[in-house]
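Why do we bother with a discrete structure alphabet at all? Because it lets us treat a fold like text: something you can write down, compare, and reason about line by line. To make this less abstract, here is a complete entry for Transcriptional regulator. Read it the way you would read a sentence in a foreign language you are learning: slowly, and without expecting to understand everything at once.
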Amino acid sequence: MKNNFRSGCPLASTLDIVGDKWSLLIVRDMLFQVKKTFKDFSTSPEGIAPGILSSRLKWLEENQLITKQKLPDNKKENIYLLTEKGIELAPIITEIILWSDKNLRGQNAEMFSIAEAGFHQDKSKFTEGIQKKYMAQVNRTVGKRI
């Protein structure tokens, strides 16, 4: 893994890894919708182009936020799973969603209701629930903990 960080600032370093337009959306899809295949990601409403998706998946893998492996019962298809490092982005994604709901809802009439997604409860419990749900789904998919 190549370390091309712009500075020693922790925020800048994080943005060097996940600060592009697509990386956090891929992690969001993995955490909230348990997407795991290239085809799954390509159906997201944001419409990521296949070349960009491929590039971002490789980037996230190089930076150890996801792993690529084969399904136990289908050795042809790649699946992508979050690592612990990737799962730990859940609180950040939750905070961004809450900030957006508070500050951008008036500008985006199409914004989804966060209450319907479960955000009406305590945010730390919500985030922990998302992480546990993701881990349980991964365990069912690959039969082991990541």
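What the structure line is telling us, in plain words: Helices lie at 10-18, 23-33, 38-42, 50-62, 84-87, 90-104, 123-142. The radius of gyration is 16 Å.
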